[in-house]
Amino acid sequence: CINFLLLFLLTTVEIGSDIVQLQIENTFELLTGTFEVSKQVTGPEANALVPGFEFTVAYTYAGMPTPGLLKVTNGATVASPEIPAGTTVTISEVGPQGGISTGGTWESPVFVLADGTRVTGSVTVTIGDGQTVRLLLDNPTVSPPPDQLPPIPSPPVPPVPPITVPPFPQPLPQTGSGIAGMLTIGGLILL
Q1: More confident residue, 120 or 16
Q2: Which one of 21, 42, 96, 147 has the minimum C-beta count within 10 Å?
Q3: d(CA 37, CA 15)
Q4: What angle do CA 139, 143, 149 make, to 5 degrees?
């Protein structure tokens, strides 16, 4: 609500034969309201949204030289400036470009009104005195066709250590005694 005070000072007013000084004070109040847009990204690629990606909401009404623009991120809410009560405002979204890391795309935005009405594209609302019109702006996502999916990187394969084979045991050196030496030792033991 915006208050104005208009003050006029008239110095020469004749009432009958008397000249009197008059001060006229005229005050009025401009009644205003706002609208809010809460952002929601849905669909199969919602989890692939680039963090911090900004969406642009445009609004316009009679007498605006250029549309107003508001920036909002997924899960956040943005409010308009004060707008004269009774004003019919058209709200739309500037089509997002990119923002999905998997290469997915956007379907048409859907505005959801407080009563649950869903409106695709743009929506028109009337601003009430001292009130805020609340809207949900849903951006559905679409997965890219399978032939346009980005390549999925293969997990790195750890290097395989070389296999070392222990050498075979070498035969014991021959001492020359053989079986005859063992029989001689066995015979000595018996004696």
Answers
A1: 120
A2: 147
A3: 58
A4: 140
